[in-house]
Amino acid sequence: MLQDYTKFTGKDELNKILRKMGAVLDISNTQHEDAVNKYQAIANYLGRDEKINIYMPDMYPQGSFGLGTVIKPLSDKEEYDIDLVCELKSATIEDLTQSDLKKLIGDRLKSGMYKDMLKDQNGGRRCWTIKYAEDTQLHLDILPAMPDNASRLLFESKGNSYGDSALSITDNKHPDFYRYTDDWVKSNPKGYQTWFKEQMLTQLNESKRLFAATENANVDDVPDYKVKTPLQRAVQLLKRHRDSSCEDNDDKPISIIITTLSAQAYSNEDNLYDALVNILNRMHEYIKYEMKDGKRITVIENPVDSRENFADKWEDYPIREKVFLEWLNSAKTYFKALLQDVKDMQWINESLNKGFGNDIVKKTFSALGNQSRSLRDSGNLRMATGTGLLGTNIAKEKSKEVKKHNFHGKNEK
Question: What is the Cα gyration radius of the chain?
Answer without folding.
Answer: 24
